[in-house]
Design goal:
Number of domains: 2
Radius of gyration: 19 Å
Order of helices and strands: HEEEEH
Number of strands: 4
Number of helices: 2
Helix content: 10-25%
Shape: extended
Distance between the termini: 41 Å
Strand content: 5-15%
Largest sheet: 2 strands, antiparallel
Structural class: alpha+beta
Length: about 90
């Protein structure tokens, strides 16, 4: 990190799952000044749930679009716009 000019003493490199949970559940990390961001929680299945608010972004290479008669010739298919079948889309509902 120092080679990149990053000298923040608060950086945690490759934290364990437990460390991520502990950090996210600290009282000072539970609320945001952004009213669209909800508190961090642990779901009934044990998953850590973190809200990013109304400005939620996506990882571009995880974007899927249903490939059908409407989209087959109107979408620029490639690394970012990855096709998914209507059946696979319905499974995720």
């Amino acid at each position: 990190m120092k080679k990149l000019g990053i000298t923040n003493a608060n950086i945690v490199y490759n934290p364990t799952v437990a460390e991520c949970y502990e950090y996210a559940m600290k009282p000072e990390h539970q609320w945001s000044p952004d009213p669209t961001v909800g508190p961090n929680t642990i779901t009934e299945t044990g998953a850590l749930c973190v809200s990013s608010g109304s400005k939620t972004g996506r990882v571009p290479k995880e974007k899927r679009i249903v490939l059908d008669d409407t989209t087959k010739d109107t979408i620029h298919w490639g690394e970012v716009n990855i096709p998914i079948s209507p059946k696979s889309y319905d499974i995720g509902k």
